[in-house]
Amino acid sequence: MLELDRDVVIVGAGPAGLTAARELKKAGLSVAVLEARDRVGGRTWTDTIGGAMLEIGGQWVSPDQSELLALLDEFGLQTYSRYRAGASVYIGGDGKRTLYTGDTFPVNSTTAAEMDKLTALLDSLAAEIGPTEPWAHPKSRELDTISFHHWLRQNSTDEEACNNIGLFIAGGMLTKPAHAFSALQAVLMAASAGSFTHLTDEDFILDKRVVGGMQQVSVLQAAELGGDVVLDSPVRTINWAEAAGGYRVTAVSDRVTVNARFVIMAVPPNLYSRVSFNPPLPRRQLQMHQHQSLGLVIKVHAVYSSPFWREEGLSGTGFGADALVQEVYDNTNYEDPRGTLVGFISDEKADAMFELSAEDRRRAILESIAGFLGDKALEPEVYYESDWGSEEWTRGAYAASYDLGGLHRYGKDQLTPVGPIHWACSDLAAEGYQHVDGAVRMGRKTAARIVAVAERPAVPVEAR
């Protein structure tokens, strides 16, 4: 087995791990990045399926994602706007299909007023609590011990309003039923994007895509790092001990052993347990990680000979909190004459779909998309389901969140290093939480923290 000596060993070659590695090398530290998969990119993945380029993982860029935008600019990667001209489609709780324009669902005046009220409440809480330390706010326990489902109904008796507001966080972001996470977790999701209003504005949160695919952010960083990135190399054991002037670390993977001074765990929290730590992690960490889990979503790609919905005056955007496919968007690639739709089936609806055969699941999903955009949606040239829940080295989507009561209980310790072990992933970000921007931010912050420690004068063990 190959043995390497480095200053820092990084577990995971997604945007967080590769950004950290790149920043560390700029600061003069040596690195090795160990990746379990046969590719870089983590939860970003661009592939060609049936002759169509599909973004199987994360893909969108929002105007507030300044760290990601700066990185795209640095690498000369261009972006383009999501198609949004024409009417959108809303399917209400009664199953009625309605066309509309603008950013307001075509609901009755009472429901619209209730949605505005809930939005204002969430905007106010997001501004008051912020994304950095939601667990430290005086209202944290109160908001963390009530589910988002029940918080909504505590503040409104309009069921359609509650379901629509819930969609933007439960189905659209955390991909868990609204009864499975707290109101505080919902507020963090909103605060991380700047406001809850941003989450309800698809023209903001789903603003642009990267020409050629988001995975290039990782591919280009890995190309700079060259042989410092080792693929097909899941880390099995991390041994660490105090040594003169710091720590001594040995990371053992399937292909290489790395001796280092620091470790960055740049994978989601649900994968920490795949590594055996010696000595074991502290009780606090072991408990915390059991309260963090990823959601479940099926991202469906349907490619057609042309974007037929545009010819019919439709934007390709559709929402329906009670529909099987709760969201659908025009996802046509840059300068591609074909048309691509992307739809999302979350949490319990995804459970139900995976109980069906592949053929029956395909039929049900396409029928739901056709409910928005018409029968031409039933016959795509290419059909593909992104199922991150079955990915061995991810096991869910889009990111980890705490169960009810977990955020205020454990959040303050989620970034606390354990000896030489540091944590960096979008799941632990403040701004940009669960987005590539958050991963880039975490990679940079963690690298800066390690550089600061590494530059301190060494203190002999006997002097401590």
Automatic annotation (TrEMBL):
Gene3D superfamilies: FAD/NAD(P)-binding domain (3.50.50.60). Substrate binds at F344. InterPro entries: Amino_oxidase, FAD/NAD-bd_sf, Flavin_amine_oxidase, Flavin_MAO. Keywords: Oxidoreductase. It comes from the Bacteria. Residues 16-450 form the Amine oxidase domain. One of its GO terms (molecular function) is oxidoreductase activity. FAD binds at E35, A36, V235. Its cofactor is FAD. Belongs to the flavin monoamine oxidase family. This is FAD-dependent oxidoreductase. It comes from Arthrobacter oryzae. The lineage of its organism: Bacteria, Bacillati, Actinomycetota, Actinomycetes, Micrococcales.
